[in-house]
Input
Amino acid sequence: MKDYKPIMSFDDNVAEIYRNIERGDEVVAVAFLEQLAGHGPALELAIGAGRIALPLAARGIRVDGIDISPAMVAQLRNKPGGKEVSVIVGDFADVPVADNYNLIFVVWNSLFNLLTQDDQVRCFQNVARHLTEEGSFVVEAYVPTFLCRLRSDQYVDTEAILIDEVKLDVLRHDISTQMIEESHVSLSPAGVRLNPVVQRYAWPAELDLMARIAGLRLAQRWGGWNREPFNSNSGMHISVYGR
Ligand SMILES: C[S@@+](CC[C@H](N)C(=O)[O-])C[C@H]1O[C@@H](n2cnc3c(N)ncnc32)[C@H](O)[C@@H]1O
Output
């Protein structure tokens, strides 16, 4: 997508939508992360509006965050407990923090918002620099199988049909570059609104190699936050890396 920058996906309008979005996995995700965090501290890469960070912090663990979007951070700040979370506005590939953490995590496919393999490897390397000796790095992401089964490498999905609005999800896949280009399209009397998203996905095995380059090893891989087995039917994975 020519001239695309990740910040475009998370402007004021989108941040407003993310304000109260829940995926339904929050309770189990927080329980999983809490166990690994121990006494903390924890760091969330791409913290967004605090969907996971805030309930984790409410368990008594110090949770810091990094996010590139001031609009998303503003949504976090407006929520209960949001002002107590320390957030750095910056690129999480750099992991621009001073402290070391028992737990660093990146969920909801956000690792794929880094658009090159180099940036993703750099992220793993910088995470390794900020993990305590026993610390864990948790990545939650989709398994790209579904992208390889698309007809003509693309789809248009209907997200909602309302009296005064139709919402579509339009996606194209380039298997040679492992990139997806997507737009959430809203058609209404107010006009057409587009929310572009670009991602560079990676298969779990590629992430494991990135971890090795960074001096980390895969310690656990699950097919869900309830520790469901990871197998060829898994649509997502939760991977835990350590030294
Ligand atoms: C789908 S939201 C997920 C937010 C939160 N982790 C959650 O689970 O609700 C993705 C977030 O990644 C952030 N983001 C995307 N690219 C980034 C980058 N390179 N550095 C820091 N944050 C980034 C966006 O601003 C957005 O807040």
